[in-house]
Automatic annotation (TrEMBL):
One of its GO terms (cellular component) is mitochondrial inner membrane. Belongs to the prokaryotic/mitochondrial release factor family. GO terms for molecular function: translation release factor activity. GO terms for biological process: mitochondrial translational termination. The keyword Protein biosynthesis applies. Residues 285-301 form the Prokaryotic-type class I peptide chain release factors domain. PROSITE patterns: RF_PROK_I (PS00745). This is Release factor. Keywords: Methylation, Protein biosynthesis.
C-alpha cells in the first residue's frame, strides 16, 4: 500500500469513508517483528543514525550495480548485511511521511471537518507504526556483538561474604539451570565444585561452569555478566540481622568442535588465537571425591597462559585427554573474552569525552536480590521486580529482568554509534 498523498481536489471533498482513508494512509508495516530493544521510544531517529542509514542505502545501490556487472563475493556479503537496514529505512520513511501528511491535514484550515476528524483518528495508530519503525531501524543499525551467535559458558563463583556467598553462588547456579530447562536450552555441566562434591541445595559452592550449547546463547546470557549481590538473613544468624554477600557471573563464548571459529585458532589476528609456546601444561593427580581412581592416575590438567597469567584447571573426567581438551576450550574462551573486553574498554574511554558513556564492567555490582523485600533490582537498566521466588526459579520474571538489561545494552550501543560518528567528523 502507498503512503497518503492528498491532492487539493481531495481536500475539498465533502466526505470520504473511514475505511478508504485508513486504506490509503497506512504504510506497509504489518510484518510482525520481535524487537531486541526498546532503545527507541519516540518517533524520531538521531540525525547521526539517520545519516548513517542513508549513506548505507547509497552504498547498497552502488553494490547492486557492481554485482549486475559480475559476481563479487565481498560485495555480495556486504549487500546482504545492508539489506535489513535498507528495508528498515524504507519502512521508516513511509511511516514518517504518513505522520507528516496526516498532521498537515489536521492543522490545515481548509481541510474538510469530517476528513480532519478521520485523519485525527488515524494519526495515533500511524504514530505507533512510526515508533515501531524507529525501533526496527535502530536495531538494524547497531552492529551485532561478534560472539552473539555462539554458545556460551556461565562461570559462577562466590565473592565477598564467606559461606553465605558460597551458598548464594549455588542459588544462582540453580537459577540459571532452571531458566535453561524452562526455555529449552541444552546444557552441559563442565565443572561443579563444593565442599562435599554434590549439587545439593544449600551446600556452599566454590565454582560452577555451565556450557549452554545452543547457538545464540551468548547473546541471551551476555546481560548476566557481573557481580550479583544478595541481602538476606543467613540461616546461621541468631540475631536476625541482614547480611550482604556477593557472587560473580562470567559469560564467555563457547567454541564447539568443528565450529566456524576453529579456523581462526591459527590466525594471530584472531581473538581465539593462543601461541602454544606461551602456555604451561601441568598434569597431576586429581583431588576430592571419586574413589581409588582419583589419587592413582595423573588425569587432572592445569594450563597457564603465561602472558596474562590466566590459569585453567580441569579434573572432572577420568581421562587426561578429555580434561586437556576441556581446559584448552575454556582457556581460549577466557582469552577471547578478555581481548574483546579490553577493546570495548578502550573504545568506551574514547567515547566518554564525546557523550559521557559509562561502561559497567563485569567487576561492578549489576544486580541485587533482597530476600526480606522479595525484590530484585538490576542497577544497569533500573528494572525492579517483586517476585523473587519466580526469579530464583528461572521463570518469566527473570526473563523480564534480562530483557530490560538487553534493552539497556542496546541503548549503550546506540550512544556508541553516535559517538563514533562524532569522532569521525
Amino acid at each position: 500500500m502507498r503512503s497518503l498523498h492528498i491532492s487539493t481536489t481531495m481536500l475539498t471533498t465533502s466526505w470520504i469513508c473511514r475505511n478508504c482513508l485508513s486504506r490509503i494512509s497506512r504504510p506497509l508495516l504489518k510484518r510482525s517483528i520481535r524487537l531486541q530493544s526498546n532503545a527507541a521510544t519516540s518517533e524520531t531517529i538521531p540525525p547521526a543514525l539517520l545519516s548513517r542509514a542513508r549513506a548505507i542505502v547509497t552504498e547498497h545501490k552502488e553494490l547492486t550495480e557492481k554485482l549486475s556487472n559480475g559476481f563479487d563475493t565481498r560485495a555480495a556479503k556486504k549487500l546482504g548485511e545492508y539489506s535489513p537496514i535498507v528495508n528498515a529505512l524504507g519502512e521508516w520513511d513511509k511511516a514518517n511521511e504518513s505522520v507528516t501528511e496526516l498532521t498537515s491535514m489536521i492543522h490545515d484550515a481548509s481541510t474538510d471537518p469530517e476528513l480532519r476528524s478521520l485523519a485525527s483518528d488515524d494519526l495515533g495508530e500511524t504514530r505507533t507504526q512510526l515508533v515501531n519503525a524507529s525501533q526496527n531501524l535502530i536495531t538494524s543499525l547497531v552492529p551485532v556483538h561478534p560472539f552473539a551467535h555462539l554458545p556460551c559458558l556461565l562461570e559462577i563463583r562466590p565473592g565477598a561474604g564467606g559461606s553465605e556467598a558460597a551458598i548464594f553462588a549455588g542459588d544462582l547456579f540453580r537459577m540459571y539451570s532452571a531458566f535453561c530447562n524452562r526455555n529449552g536450552f541444552r546444557t552441559n555441566l563442565l565443572k561443579y565444585e563444593n565442599v562435599n562434591g554434590t549439587t545439593e541445595a544449600g551446600v556452599p559452592l566454590s565454582e560452577a561452569i555451565i556450557e549452554v550449547e545452543n547457538d545464540g546463547a551468548y547473546g541471551v546470557f551476555r546481560c548476566e555478566a557481573g557481580v550479583h549481590r544478595v541481602q538476606r538473613v543467613p540461616a546461621t544468624e541468631t540475631k536476625g540481622r541482614t547480611h550482604t554477600s556477593a557472587a560473580s557471573v562470567h559469560v564467555l563464548p563457547s567454541l564447539q568442535e568443528n565450529s566456524a571459529e576453529e579456523q581462526d585458532f591459527d590466525d594471530p589476528e584472531s581473538d581465539y588465537y593462543i601461541d602454544v609456546k606461551e602456555v604451561k601444561l601441568e598434569v597431576m593427580r586429581a583431588s576430592g571425591a571419586g574413589g581409588q581412581h582419583v589419587n592413582k592416575t595423573e588425569s587432572a590438567v592445569r594450563l597457564t597462559h603465561i602472558p596474562t597469567n590466566t590459569v585453567v584447571a580441569m579434573q572432572d573426567s577420568r581421562s587426561q585427554h578429555k580434561n586437556k581438551e576441556k581446559a584448552w576450550a575454556l582457556l581460549r574462551s577466557r582469552i577471547a573474552q578478555s581481548r574483546r573486553e579490553k577493546r570495548e574498554e578502550e573504545m568506551a574511554n574514547m567515547r566518554r569525552s564525546v557523550i559521557g558513556v559509562a561502561k559497567m564492567g563485569r567487576g561492578d555490582k549489576v544486580r541485587t536480590y533482597n530476600w526480606g523485600q522479595q525484590r530484585v533490582t538490576d542497577h544497569r537498566s533500573g528494572t525492579t521486580v517483586h517476585d523473587l521466588d519466580d526469579v530464583m526459579g528461572g521463570g518469566q520474571t527473570l526473563e523480564k529482568v534480562m530483557e530490560g538489561v538487553r534493552s539497556w545494552l542496546m541503548e549503550r550501543d546506540v550512544e556508541a554509534l553516535i559517538a563514533d560518528d562524532a569522532n569521525t567528523k
